[in-house]
């Protein structure tokens, strides 16, 4: 009977620990979800240029999305310098 009581007690402790871990993971998941939504909203403000890797020339201008009221002039980034030394890690 004592062994059964100890086993049930261990099972109860493990169950409580698992429940606590699940609550922590759910909270972390909610936080990550909110942060990813904020990041997506921030990234949506920008349009990224498309550069042709073969020629190094830009296909279209880089400019803020229409929702960004601070920058009114269109900006065209210079093509990347393809002669730069590049090291792979």
Model description:
With 89 residues, the protein is mainly alpha-helical. The longest helix is centred in the N-terminal third of the chain and has 42 residues. The protein is rod-shaped, with a radius of gyration of 27 Å. The mean pLDDT is 76.
Oligomer: single chain
**Main sheet makeup:** none
Roughly what percent helix? Answer: 40-55%
Residue-averaged pLDDT: 76
Series of secondary-structure elements, N-terminal to C-terminal: H
Instruction: Give the helix tally.
Output: 1
Low-confidence stretches: none
Would you tell me the structural class of the helices and strands? mainly alpha
Shape: rod-shaped
> Radius of gyration, rounded?
27 Å
- End-to-end separation in angstroms reads 62 Å
How many β-strands, per DSSP? Answer: 0
- Into which percentage range does the β-strand content fall? under 5%
Task: Jot down its keywords.
mainly alpha, 89 residues, 1 helix
In short:
This protein has 89 residues and is mainly alpha-helical.
Which helices and strands, and how do they pair?
Blueprint: H1 2-43
